[in-house]
Specification:
By secondary structure, the chain is an alpha+beta fold. It is built from four helices and 24 strands. Helix 2 packs antiparallel against helix 3.
């Protein structure tokens, strides 16, 4: 009986040990998951971004012609689109009042000259009589004063005549250089004021491409940059130019600056008013660029996953983003050349997780 009891006890112990061993095997932790990821090695790169803006073509020099005096326009000899030559008459005012003033000035001058002849002869007689002692000094001085007054009247009448002649010439508007008429401001029969624009002429001494440029782009554009300008509706028509003028003050509505690009060898098809596209490559410094898919969020700030190349584990690191677009992110701070960044699979990672590198996305 004792042997039977001892055997039963031994059997119970073995059974219990077997059950415990089975429990330990069931609670054993599974092997850690090694997640495959794609990566990129951080390095400096120079990114010369190309920027395009839409503008239009204007004349390098555009002049508004106006009469120097007011009056009624009786004739306009050119229209929009006409070519003009230096000295060509563009428009005329009714000259009747000016011609009448001219004739009056001419008559006044003739009368003043006649009076001068009379007083000059009288002075000559008084001068002779004074030498002979047949007149007084007072009479001589009076004759001399009358002659000088007559001379002054002649000078004044001559000045009035010159002014009247100028006013007659001002009734005709002349071109001072070759160009094309781009706008008209008065029609025949209309009464205009002095200085009112009658015609606008674009001189043929050059063409400008005009753009409205944001302030940030002005700061980034390199000095003496060469701008490529093409027709928007026909990119095969090209010209190049350099910035000739930048407006000193921003437009109060758009907050952009008007920039004029002087074009060289302007094609004939690039007419005044044509819509053009200007392209320029911005100046750049060495920057760190990573794919946009590498960016994640940690502590409510932009972050990336960094790979420890020895342990093959990942950890998060916050970074400062300089700028980004749908495909690329430019990092200002937080990454160093040579570090490995995860670019695909960032949503399923956690700190310290082992990873298997599938290859670079470069």
């Amino acid at each position: 009986m004792r042997r039977v009891r001892a055997f039963g006890a031994l059997f119970g112990l073995l059974t219990a040990a077997t059950i415990l061993a089975g429990c330990r095997e069931e609670t054993k932790q599974p092997a850690p998951l090694i997640r495959p990821v794609r990566t990129i090695t951080v390095e400096h790169s120079k990114l010369g971004d190309s920027v395009s803006l839409t503008g239009h073509v204007e004349a390098e020099s555009q002049v508004s012609f106006a009469f120097r005096l007011g009056g009624r326009v009786i004739e306009r000899l050119v229209n929009v689109g006409d070519q003009v030559e230096p000295g060509q008459i563009l428009a005329k005012l009714d000259p009747q009042n000016e011609i009448s003033a001219l004739r009056t000035a001419q008559a006044n001058l003739v009368a003043a000259e006649g009076q001068l002849v009379k007083t000059r002869n009288a002075f000559g007689r008084q001068e002779t009589l004074l030498r002979q002692g047949f007149t007084t000094r007072a009479q001589f001085d009076a004759a001399q004063q009358a002659m000088r007054a007559s001379q002054s009247q002649v000078d004044s009448s001559q000045a009035q005549l010159d002014n009247a002649e100028d006013r007659v010439s001002f009734t005709e508007l002349h071109a001072d250089a070759a160009g094309s008429v781009t706008a008209v401001g008065a029609e025949p029969g209309e009464v205009v004021q002095a200085g009112q624009m009658v015609l606008q002429v674009a001189r043929q001494d050059g063409r400008d491409a005009v753009f409205d440029v944001p302030a940030q782009l002005l700061r980034q554009a390199p000095e003496a940059a060469i701008i490529e300008v093409t027709l928007t509706d026909d990119p095969a028509v090209k010209a190049t130019g350099r910035v000739r003028e930048v407006a000193p003050q921003a437009d109060p509505t758009t907050r952009t600056f008007r920039v004029r690009v002087g074009l060289s060898d302007t094609p004939e098809a690039m007419r005044l008013g044509s819509t053009v596209t200007g392209r320029v490559t911005l100046a750049s410094s060495p920057e760190i660029a990573i794919p946009a898919t590498a960016l994640t969020n940690f502590n409510r700030q932009p972050a990336v996953w960094i790979v420890d190349q020895d342990k093959k584990t990942v950890s998060t690191r916050n970074v400062e983003v300089l700028r980004f677009d749908p495909a690329t992110v430019i990092i200002a701070q937080g990454l160093n050349p040579g570090e490995v960044v995860v670019t695909a699979g960032v949503q399923a990672l956690h700190d310290g997780q082992e990873v298997r590198l599938l290859g670079s996305t470069q």
